[in-house]
Give the backbone structure.
Amino acid sequence: MSLRIVVAVKYVPDATGDRHFAEDLTTDRDAVDGLLSELDEYAVEQALQIAEEADDAEITVLTVGPEDAKDALRKALSMGADQAVHVEDDALHGTDALGTSLVLAKAIEHTGYDLVVCGMASTDGTMGVLPAMLAERLGVPQVTLLSEVKVEDGKVTGRRDGDAASEQLEAQLPAVVSVTDQSGEARYPSFKGIMAAKKKKVESLDLSDLGIEEDEVGLAGAWTKVDSAAERPARTAGTIVTDEGEGGKQLAAFLAEQKFI
Amino acid sequence: MRLGPTADEELFARTVRALLERRCTPRDVRAGFARKRWEELAETGVTGLLVSEEHGGLGLGAGALVAVAAAGGRACAPEPVVEAAVAAALLAGVDADRAAKWLRELAAGTAVAAVRLPVGGPRTGGGPGAVPVAHAAYADLVLVVDGHALHVCPAADACIGPVAGVDPGRGLAHVDISTLSGEPPVALREWTVTRAGWLGAIGAAADLLGAARAMLELTVRYAGQREQFGRAIGSYQAVKHLLADVLIAVEFAHPVVLRAAYSFDHDLPSAGRDAAMAKVFASDAADLAARSCLQVHGAIGYTEECDLVLWLRRVWALSAAWGDAAHHRAAVAADLLGPAPAPPCP
């Protein structure tokens, strides 16, 4: 039987743009162009490599997001994924990570899977908790933050690089993995890939298709709430220390004051 | 009527731009042509844009070339993307057996083509001896058009000697066509040669506009940082005006180039004139950009250490390539007004 890989991806505001919150303190998606989260490109790349190694594999990219989020799916399809699932519902506006993990888990179960591949975090929310939540919801092992990943004999193995040590991890399929930005640069879509992507299937689902109640998601259903947000203060000029023999001491005193040493 | 690239072509151009932003930094440009980058461009389809699908290419037209060449110009990529397209157009006029191998290799990125197609100057290669060919220093295939004759020279069989050019990134070399052995040149139809020349002019025009935009961005950033008399020089109106004029020239040239590609792809009767217009507008805009950006940078602008110089040299070389602005302006005039009267006899 073929290896069914689901890659969960996020459509995020361009990190190089000028990002803001909207009035209800959710991400303002209108002001900045959106794209496939760069960290999720690594997940797509690893999924493609796993699929190339496997005899028979099928990659489904999955996203939860507004209409424009189809762009992220298109990009992943043009890189080589086989099909896409887009969960879109007005009630999803303002959903937090916990709610998103519920929607993704239901959609993944709907699609069917042997392996779920995620990026290490989104470039907008940067929480990095979703893979773990997803594994919990699906009731399968999680192997997160891998910089190398392989699937062999019904097992997923990989290397997680920490500050002090590298761990070799493995889990029985089905499982959820997340890959880091050290896992290998994502490929660029070719023109043929872009053209082929137009013919690939994109399934649209809403909450009722997944059997999710509206109050389980959205701002109302969120377990976390943003109370207030402030613009990052403009960078100040900083302190200039002129060395008159005491420069080293002054520098040390500054670092100590800032609790760096 | 939509002149711009299709949505797919635009998405493709963005991909090429993203690839070059990572793989073709100013440091890479200084290192010159890179076969690895050529192969990566080939994987996306850039080198086979105009190669037919039968030979592994994409079978696209000048519209796609414009989108991609502009991305190349922006990054100042040394790789001969426009030449690959012109080579495909020329080889399409050569009998299948001889052309197929090279078309396949071009599309696959295993071969690099350099093209000499005199536009403007004398139609011949100047008789026996060497002709300068851009990109010949690292090409696998050199195509030299001499009148209606096309020399298809594998680089291995040709006598090629690198020479100093305005832009070291363009791999200029002398190719001695008089010593060519092997197969005789192919007789091309005049139409094939003419259209290949237009394609080169359109591609170079797009390349120039990409370069002009890159220089403008670089210079706007510089003007915001460089202080004089206690203020950023970009806050002075005289500097703002210089750069605003560059932007206007580039923006006005852009649709002219798109129009030329459209006319080319649709075989309109005005295709030749439109291609000439494109090269005139793009060369003038890029020349203005080069001059103004150098002016705003001041003397640092032409030092080796400053990235601006990479684009300056590219623009100087490209303005003259595929017929300069004066040649194409005369071509437009001739098309509109008829041939220029012969000078009176003394």
